[in-house]
Amino acid sequence: MSSEKSGKRKPSARISRKRERSRQEILAAARAILREGGVEAVTLGSVAGSLGLTKQALYHYFPSKEALVRNLVVTLLDEEVGVLVDAVEREESDARVLDALIRAFYRHYIGRLDAFRAVYCQSQLYPAPAAILDADVLRDEINPRTRGLFDMLETRLAKSSASKVERARKRRLAYTAWLAALGLLTMLGVADATRDALVHTDEDLLDTLAGVFDSAAGS
Question: In which domain, by residue range, is 23 found?
């Protein structure tokens, strides 16, 4: 059925751009609230108030707090993947790409642990089906973003003549390096929340992680 017959008309390009600008302004306001008060402070009411809008006005873009936070988390993950991809591309030595990955992950989140918690701690805080990142979001939005990063790492780590088994091993190594960086930030987040500093300095821990994975990548 055509749009004319159904009575529904596709929004013009100008209207679509305006809607997207408004959507990005709402997400920017949500990020500012996230920095100040954590993910619990991000509500439709708090975001609407910061923008001088009514709560009902936000329903046009995000029908619930869960939808708002879900979109915020996807935006934050987009930024993370972009930072990591850029770090890997800029690293000239194939033998040091995991070093670059670990350090880029650390630098990206160490000054914004609020964003790290929003992205990686929601599944621990909210059991299904209330989880922010449900199976559909993971399958359709998150996994495609991270798959490209690990495709790149696999290509950088494995020689062109490498067997399928060897390429799989290198990809697994890259994923483990990312997990190690995530674990380090998790512990730093705990230390920050409890005001109980870790025994080792951040730099020592980064050097150790990077050394371990650089050695494994070259073996």
Answer: 1-63
Mean pLDDT of 136-157: 86
Q: How far apart are CA 6 and CA 25, in angstroms?
A: 32
Tell me, yes or no, whether 8 and 83 share the same domain: no
Q: Which two tokens stand for residue 169?
A: 């091993």
| Contacts of 137 by beta carbon, 8 Å cutoff, 6+ apart | 70, 74
157 pLDDT more than 50: yes
Q: State which of 63, 88, 117 marks the end of a domain.
A: 63
In whole angstroms, give the CA distance from residue 78 to residue 94.
Answer: 24
Q: Are 78 and 51 members of one domain?
A: no
Above 60 in pLDDT, residue 4? Answer: no
- pTM comes to 0.83
Please write the tens of the pLDDT for every residue from 68-87. Answer: 988 898 889 989 999 999 99
> Cα–Cα distances in Å, from 214 out to 7, 114, 164, 182?
61, 29, 21, 17
**Last residue of some domain: 45, 63, 81?**
63
Same structural domain, 152 and 180:
yes
Count, residues in the chain? 219
| Residue 73 and residue 164 in one domain | yes
Token pair of 7 as six digits: 């009575």
- Which amino acid type is present at position 154? E
- CA separation (Å) from 163 to 131, 154, 178, 205? 39, 12, 23, 33
- Proportion of the chain above pLDDT 90, given as a percent: 50
pLDDT recorded at residue 118: 87
**How far apart, in whole angstroms, are the C-alpha atoms of residue 33 and residue 53?**
15
